[in-house]
Amino acid sequence: MPDTLVSPELTKRQFQQISEQVYRLCGIYLPAGKEGLVKSRLMKRLRALRLQSFDQYLHYIEQDRSGQELVAMVEVLTTNKTSFFREAQHFDYLRRYVFPTMRHPSQRVRFWSAGCSSGEEPFSLAIVLCEAFPDIAQRDIRILATDIATRMLQKAREAIYEQDVLREVPAILLQKYFTCIRYQPPRAYRLNDTVRALVRFARLNLMDPWPMKGPFDVIFCRNVMIYFDRPTQQRLVQRFWELLKPGGYLLVGHSESLSAIVHPFRYVQPAVYVK
Ligand SMILES: C[S@@+](CC[C@H](N)C(=O)[O-])C[C@H]1O[C@@H](n2cnc3c(N)ncnc32)[C@H](O)[C@@H]1O
Q1: Mean confidence (pLDDT) of the chain
Q2: Which residue's alpha carbon is at the smallest distance from atom 15 of ligand 1?
Q3: Distance 75 CA to ligand 1 centre (A)
Q4: Does domain 88-274 have CATH number 3.40.50.150?
Q5: The CATH number, out of the four listed (1.20.1250.20, 1.10.155.10, 2.60.40.200, 3.20.20.70), of the domain defined by the range 12-77
Q6: Helix axes 54-63, 35-49, angle to 10 degrees
Q7: What are the extents of the domains in the chain?
Q8: Which of 30, 49, 73, 143 could be disulfide-bonded to 111 (CB atoms 3.0-4.6 Å)?
Q9: Cβ(124) to ligand 1 under 6 A?
Q10: d(Cα 149, Cα 227) in Å, to the nearest integer?
Q11: Is residue 86 within 6 Å of ligand 1 at its C-beta?
Q12: Other Cβ atoms within 10 Å of 258 Cβ, number
C-alpha cells in the first residue's frame, strides 16, 4: 500500500456516521459545516493506519473491539488549546474571595479541573495555591485534573514545557517553581515536585459515570462545554452541582455562559457561578 494517499472524499453519510460516533462517545457535537475540519484532521488517522478511504476507516473503527481507535479519533478531533494563567480573572477571583475562606490549617479543600488538557490549567491553580498557602505541603489541599485525551494527560504528567508555552508565567514564578532542563533554544522547563504533588491526573470521559464522590470546593470546566450541545451541557452542569459543596464554585470559560440553559447556580460574575 502506498505511503501517501490521494485525499479521499468524505461523503455526507460518512460525515454523519463520524459525528454520531463522536457525539455518542464524548458529547462533542459536530454540526454540518465542519466537514472540512473533520476531513483534514482525520487524514492523520487514515495515514497512520494506511487506509485509503473513510469507509475503510469507519469499518476499522467498527471492528476495533478495544475502542482505542474511537478514542484516537476523538483526540484528533478535539481542540486541546490551553495556556498557563488563561482567563486570569478566575485566579484573581480565587485569590481575593475564595482562598480567604480556606484559611483553617486542617480544612479539606478539593479542586477539580475537568478537561485539563496538557496540564496548564491545574498547574496554574497549583502555583497560585502555593503562593497563597506557603505551608501547603502540610495542608489537605488537592487538585484532581481529568481529561478524555490520553496523549494530553501524558504531557501533563511529564510537566515539561517549552519557553513559548511559559510566556504567561511571570519571571519570578518561573524561577521559583520551574527548573530549566534544556538551555539551548527552545529552552525547556520542568515544573518542580512541590507543585506537581498537588495535582493528580486521571483519564475521565465527562459523559461516563464519575468515580469520585467529592464534594469539591471549586470545579473548573473551562472551554470544554463549548463543544457540547445544550442538553449535554445542561446534564453536565447539573452533575457538577451535585458534586459541589454548598457555597462551592463552578468556573466556566469566558466565552461560555450558562444563560442558555436551565441550572440551579447563582451567577456571581462572568464565568463564575456559586452553589
Ligand atoms: C480547549 S481544551 C480546554 C483546556 C482548559 N480547560 C483550558 O480552558 O485551557 C478542551 C479539553 O476538553 C477535553 N474534552 C473534550 N471532551 C471531553 C469529554 N467528553 N470528557 C473529558 N474531556 C473532554 C479535550 O480533550 C480538551 O483537552
Answers
A1: 94
A2: 224
A3: 10
A4: yes
A5: 1.10.155.10
A6: 70
A7: 12-77, 88-274
A8: 143
A9: no
A10: 15
A11: yes
A12: 17
Quote the pTM value.
0.93
Average pLDDT score over residue span 10-26: 92
Lookup: cell for 8: 479521499
27 lines ligand 1 (CB under 6 A): yes
Which active-site residues does the annotation give? 41, 147
What confidence score (pLDDT) does residue 274 get?
A: 98
What's the pLDDT tens digit per position in 51-105? 999 999 999 999 999 888 988 998 899 889 999 999 999 999 999 999 999 999 9
Helix residue ranges per DSSP H, the chain: 12-26, 35-49, 54-63, 68-77, 88-93, 120-132, 150-158, 171-177, 193-196, 230-243
Please report, as a single letter, which amino acid is at residue 112: W
Among protein residues, the one with the nearest Cα to ligand 1's atom 13 is: 115
Cα 222 to ligand 1 centre (Å) = 8
Q: Which of 224, 239, 250 to mutate to test the pocket of ligand 1 (most atoms within 8 A of CB)?
A: 224
Q: What's the rounded Cα separation, in Å, for the pair 196 and 174?
A: 14
C-beta of 222 in contact with ligand 1 (< 6 A): yes
Query: Which residues are CB-neighbours of 202 under 8 A, at least 6 positions away?
Result: 144, 145, 146, 153
- Ligand 1 atom nearest 220 alpha carbon: 6
Q: What's the CA-to-centroid distance between 105 and ligand 1, angstroms? A: 32
The pLDDT tens digits for 195-250 are 999 999 999 999 999 999 989 999 999 999 998 999 999 999 999 999 999 999 99
